[in-house]
Amino acid sequence: MKVHELAKDLEVDSSRVIEILGDNRHHLAEVTEDEMEKVVEAVSQGSPEEQDSGEKIVRFWSDVMNHAFLVHGKLIKFAGYKLNAVVDSPVYDALVALRDPSIRLVQDTPFKDRKDRTMFREMLEAKLFAGPGREVSAHRGMGYLEALFLDSQQQEVALAMHESGPAGIVDLAVETKSYKPL
Q1: In this structure, is residue 84 part of a structural domain?
Q2: How far apart are CA 157 and CA 146, in angstroms?
Q3: How many domains does the chain have?
Q4: Burial of residue 60, with CB atoms counted within 10 A of its CB: 0-12 exposed, 13-18 middle, 19 or more buried
Q5: What digits encode the pLDDT tens for the residues 48-82?
Q6: How far apart are CA 105 and CA 55, in angstroms?
Q7: What phi and psi, each to the nearest 5 degrees, are found at residue 9?
Q8: Considering the domain boundaries, does residue 159 fall inside one?
Q9: Integer Cα distance of 144 and 98 in angstroms
Q10: What local confidence, expressed as pLDDT, does residue 153 receive?
Q11: Measured between alpha carbons, how far is residue 150 from residues 13, 41, 42, 62 in Å?
Q12: What is the pLDDT confidence band of residue 45, given thresholds at 50, 70 and 90?
């Protein structure tokens, strides 16, 4: 996909996409999958001015990597199991109205109930250790798990991975995250 195509899909100027990427690309330059995720997340979080305006941004988390739905005739897609949305925006309202059990609202506090934490851990481990011999699913499982965390939390995720492997990220998620079903 090219810069201008991504900008059109996200309904922003090409200059905004180039600003997020942090380089001097031309609007016809190619954008990698990782760069697309970075841009989608940044656009969904809004500009720094929008973030300073006090709008509350929440993270939706899906069991489906590239979940998609329509809002006012426009296709909105999750990027790597996640989608950030401004509360009371058309995207937020459409997601809540879906009441899809495979989509959850991420909370930055752990479950209080031990049974809920255990079920959360089991859900994460089932997705992460999805190989035939319970090997780690590097793409799907790790992506699913990492989608719980903001970009600003990725260093903490990397440290957990370094210290304890993939199970360390599960521990970090269970200790710091929970979710609400839609």
Answers
A1: no
A2: 8
A3: 2
A4: buried
A5: 444 445 568 899 999 999 889 988 888 888 988 99
A6: 17
A7: -60, -35
A8: yes
A9: 21
A10: 87
A11: 24, 9, 11, 15
A12: low
Could you report how far apart the first and last alpha carbons of the chain are, in Å? 32
117 within domain boundaries: yes
Which residue type does 14 have?
Answer: S
What's the whole-model pTM score?
0.69
Residue type, 79: A
Separation between Cα atoms, residue 42 and residue 60, nearest integer Å:
14
- Whether 68 contacts 76, CB under 8 Å: yes
- Residue type, position 42, single letter: A
How far from the centroid of its chain's Cα atoms is residue 148's Cα?
6
- pLDDT tens, 134-179? 899 887 899 999 999 987 788 899 999 999 999 999 999 999 999 9
Domain extent for 14: 1-44
Residue 23 lies in a domain: yes
